[in-house]
Design brief:
Helix content: 40-55%
Strand order of the largest sheet: 9-10-11-6-12-13-15
CATH class of the largest domain: Alpha Beta
Shape: globular
Order of helices and strands: EHEHHEHEHHEHEHEEEEHEHHHEEHEHE
Length: 360
């Protein structure tokens, strides 16, 4: 694909993941416009790469409109998305720009899906989750559904390969008292944090995993129609114990003084995994789908680490969005680009583990 010429805005470009996305965009021949709330950092980053900058605050609609002027699409990277998505979606609808983001928050996916009719009227596509959450897992879910069209149950699991960025850690801290979630009978259903545990073979090793309220609890339903969904992440048993303690002490940890303390600790640390850490790491995903007769299919996926993959998939999605005619309204990556989209990303490989069919 030749480098598209339609302008794209990267909002939150000065953040940890935003910078990775800017670098990937340049590598892929794009010349994005950079924006974000911190004008000094955005302008400095733009000057470094000889790019245009349009700093804007999310609470300033006029500034956002000026930032989006003439843009075909936005990659929104400024979280926590529960606080930032609405303003950017509003601006995209006003300015007829397609909306992409890198969220992993169920509430954001569901809230964006609820605005699908608005987006259709505006001729705009809304596609949250174009990063590690949810591109690889969404494509894996759609692949399993393709293998077993009668599937009514879906379990996904992942291992990101590295630690967390400041933005991801902040989102986790802000949601510490909200427990878990699964989908049952098509409905998102609250469950306690660390509700279920199991050991899963990711291909390189067996890892202990625990349920978390990951974005696919929302998006995999839209992508596959499967009504019963659980998502697990690999976690040491010590971390699982901490997650279970949050059931008891989550209310205390959600208070303003404790949140302030925890966020200070986060901001005092590194912005995110180093380049060396990312280059040595790989992410792993596993999925299983089955139907009410007991027929099961399983598959695994290997990718670059979660942050590297986020940059790669976000830019790959953006290139397609600005080069091709997109469906409007709320969309998921696998619905628009297909289950095999993830295999277009360098360093990815999928393995079908087994197909177990019942006999009558």
């Amino acid at each position: 694909m030749n480098a598209p010429s339609s302008p794209i805005l990267i909002y939150g470009a000065n953040g940890y993941t935003g910078r990775l996305i800017v670098a990937e965009a340049l590598l892929r021949g794009l010349r994005p416009i950079l924006s974000g709330r911190n004008a000094a950092e955005v302008n400095a980053l733009a000057a470094l790469h000889q790019l245009d900058s349009r700093p804007a605050s999310l609470d300033d609609p006029r500034a956002l409109d000026a930032a989006l002027a003439g843009c075909t699409a936005v990659i929104h990277c400024a979280g926590p998305f529960s606080r930032t998505t609405k303003a950017m979606v509003d601006a995209c609808l006003r300015n007829k720009a397609h909306y992409l983001d890198i969220t992993g928050e169920i509430g954001v996916f569901e809230g964006t899906a609820a605005r699908s009719a608005e987006a259709e009227r505006a001729g705009v596509m809304l596609m949250p989750g174009v990063g590690f959450d949810v591109v690889p897992s969404d494509c894996l879910a759609a692949h399993l559904k393709r293998q077993l069209p009668s599937a009514s149950w879906l379990t996904l699991a992942f291992f990101g390969g590295t630690g967390f960025s400041r933005g991801t850690a902040t989102t986790m801290i802000e949601n510490i008292n909200r427990g878990g979630a699964v989908r049952r009978g098509g409905k998102i259903t609250p469950v306690p944090g660390a509700w279920r545990e199991r050991d899963i073979d990711f291909g390189d090793k067996v890892r202990h995993c625990v349920t978390i309220p990951w974005g696919d609890v929302s998006t995999a339903f839209y992508s596959t129609g499967i009504p019963n969904i659980e998502v697990y992440t690999a976690a040491p048993k010590s971390s699982v114990r901490g997650m279970k303690l949050a059931r008891i002490f989550g209310g205390v940890m959600a208070t303003a003084p404790v949140q302030s303390y925890l966020k200070r600790r986060i901001n005092a640390g590194a912005p995110g995994p180093s380049e060396a850490q990312r280059s040595r790491a790989t992410a792993r995903l596993w999925g299983e789908a089955w139907d009410d007769s007991g027929t099961r299919v399983q598959a695994r996926l290997k990718t670059p680490d979660g942050y590297t993959l986020t940059a790669m998939t976000a830019v790959a999605c953006a290139r397609k969005v600005i080069a091709e005619t997109m469906p409007v309204g709320f969309q998921t990556p696998s619905k628009v680009f297909g289950p095999d989209f993830i295999l277009e990303i360098a360093g990815t490989a999928r393995e079908d583990i087994s197909i177990v069919r019942t006999t009558s």
